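Changelog note: in this version the structure field was regenerated for every chain. One regenerated record is shown below for reference.
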Amino acid sequence: MMPAVTLNNGAKVPIVGLGTWRSDSRKVTEAVKEAINCGYRHIDGAYVYENEEEVGAGIHAMIDQGVVKREDLFIVSKLWCTFHLPSLVRGACEKTLKDLKLNYIDLYLMHSPMGMKPGDKLFPTDEHGKVIPDGSNFLDTWEEMEKLVDAGLVKSIGISNFNKDQTEAILNKPGLKYKPATNQIECHPYLAQEKLINYCHSKGISVTAYSPLGSPERPWAAADEPSLLEEAVIKAIAEKHNKTPAQVLIRFHIERNVIVIPKSVTPQRIKENFQVFDFKLSNEDMKSILNLNRNYRGFNLQWGSEHKDFPLNAEY
C-alpha cells in the first residue's frame, strides 16, 4: 500500500499524486492512464488548467478496463478565482464534475484567496496588467464550498496559496462547519516553507507541495535561474542513494509528511517520480537540503499583487 496522509475528516490521501498543470491536453489522457497503471491513485487537477475533460477521459479508461474502481482514486480539483462570488461556486464545481464525468470530487480547493471579476477571461486584468477583483470575501466563498460537502458533490474541501493569517481567518470564522483539509502551496528546497508547514500541521491541516521540482518548464522561467535538478547538493544525495535528483526532491516532502504532486506527461518520468518508497533521506540529508532554502518563488503571483487578498506579502 502506498503511504497516505490522513486528513482532518478521516479521509486518506496517497502522499504522491500526479500533477496536471501545463499538461498538454493532447497528452494528459495518456499521462493519467500511465500514472494509474504505475500505481498512482491521486490525480491533482484544476479548472484553470483547461484539461479536465482529458484528465477525466484517462480516469474513465482505467476504470472501464478494470484497473481501478472510482473509490480507489483520490481526485482533486480547484475552484478558480473568477467563481468566488457565492452564487457562482456550485456551478463551477458542477462544471468540473461534468468535465471529469464524475459524480463527486475527493478534494476541492479554493485555488487562491483572491476573488476575480467573473466572465470568460481566466485572468481579467486592467491596463496595468493587474487582476480586477470581484469584491468577494473568501470567508463567504468558503461557506459555499461547505455546502458542496453537504450536497455530496465533494468529500473534502481545502485551500491553496493561503498564508497563515488567511488560513487562520477561516479557522476563526464564526459558524465554521468544515476546517480546510489541506493547504496546497509552492514548496521545494529553495522555498522550504517551514513556518507555514509547521503552522498548518499544528492546526490539523495537511500540506500539499506544488512545483516540487521547481517547475523548470514555467513559461516565465529566466534562463539564468537556479535549477534544483542541477543543484550539487541534490545531485550528491541522489548519487549516494542511487536515485535521480527528481526522486530526492520528491522524497524530501514525504519525509516531512507533506503530500507532493510532481507533474509529467513523459511515461518514464511518471514512473520514476513514483519510485520513491524504497529509500529514506537521513537527518543529515534533510539538513543539507533545508540549507538550500532562499525563499525563492517560481510563482510570485505578481498579477495579484494589488489585490486586497494577495497572500505573499506576509512573512508566511
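Spot check on this record: The chain has a mean pLDDT of 96. The longest strand covers residues 154-160.
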